[in-house]
Amino acid sequence: xxxxxxxxxxxxxxxxxxxxxxxxxxxVGVDALLKAxxxxxxxxxxxxxxxxxxxxxxxxxxxxxxxxxxxxxxDRAGDHxxxxxxAVFDRLGEIIARPGFHGCRYLAADLALTxxxxxxxxxxxxxxxxxxxxxxxxxxxxxxxRPEHAAHQLLLLIDGTLAAGATRPGTxxxxxxxELAEHVLAx
Amino acid sequence: xxxxxxxxxxxxxxxxxxxxxxxxxxxVGVDALLKAxxxxxxxxxxxxxxxxxxxxxxxxxxxxxxxxxxxxxxDRAGDHxxxxxxAVFDRLGEIIARPGFHGCRYLAADLALTxxxxxxxxxxxxxxxxxxxxxxxxxxxxxxxRPEHAAHQLLLLIDGTLAAGATRPGTxxxxxxxELAEHVLAx
DNA sequence: AAGTAGATAGATCGATCGGTCTACGTATAT
DNA sequence: ATATACGTAGACCGATCGATCTATCTACTT
Lengths: 187, 187
What we know:
2 copies of one chain form a homodimer. By secondary structure, chain A is mainly alpha-helical. The first copy, chain A, has helices at 9-24, 30-37, 41-48, 51-76, 81-97, 105-112, 119-141, 147-167, 173-185. The first copy, chain A, has a single domain (55-186), classed as Tetracycline Repressor, domain 2. In chain A, helix 1 crosses helix 4, helix 5 runs antiparallel to helix 7 (119-141) and helix 7 packs across helix 8. The longest helix of chain A is centred in the middle third of the chain and has 26 residues, at 51-76. The N and C termini of chain A lie far apart (56 Å). At the A-B interface, helix 6, helix 7, helix 8 and helix 9 of A face helix 6, helix 7, helix 8 and helix 9 of B.
């Protein structure tokens, strides 16, 4: 293996599919994915087994990145659980303001994939429970009386922020949610 | 016209599409819609001009029904704005608990229809501003200091409830949102 | 009874879908 | 030098997509 290999077809496909599946939806055609990634048709099926396998891998790696983003956001906010949790909503404000933002990637996949047995659903379930745990841990540190319940409320506020950011841009959904989050933290 | 005409192809198509588009997504095939409605292919194009026209009509009529449901829910709750607004979240609890519920119809359509110029987007925008007005009117009656802002917060809670109800069933999202709604109403 | 409008049934269109296949090219390892 | 593995290019498959078309049937109008 050379010192600096240009990214292989697997990485190119993952990257292109990450963008294209978000912007065009999971129903984007295989041809479009291959063309965007500049990858041979065969490589898709060798590396991912098919389009569904690619979708699952894309969502999985996105989930890892997004969970890490939550952790980084909280770590940047310092040690106080209250600040760490509220920083999440400031971060959401940045995310929904980004050009091209149009909603939660996982919710979009869940809504678009009709088959309830599609493996992508498990990926997004796992991602949500990951985030739930992240929130709950901070709430426990905050000595919140009902950390489980409060974590569900914060998750609901996050979902609402992403939905509002997609459907009613310019309404500053994140800071509206942050106010409510402060109430959640107050117990 | 006979005294009791069996509903015509237009109504049958609207009804079937209402169900099928929600359960299968807007990408459901024309053949499936025709078969479910027991309607000739030609009737679709005569009455709606095409699949997109049918989608728009389905969403429009659903929006009228759903807006009426909000109004009925509030009217059943009496005259006090506070009770009328909180009743919305009790109603959401019923809706997300219904078998077959899997999220907000309009958000699903918005996420699935990639083309930003698709006329369906305007339908869901209109629907949301309708609901926003309904909420704001009650907040004004409640003498809320920031009715516009509070209406956005309530809409965010509604969106969050529908998303959480779809992705994390059994977490009682509606009552979790209702608690936060009480805080919103408190100003 | 004849005419007309609206509906059904279904063939057919070109395009695209996801997936499989063969043929060829290239780089590395032995 | 040769074998092997990995990649590209692209033809090809059956199925399905949304849409248009002809032909036929039915019901109401006059």
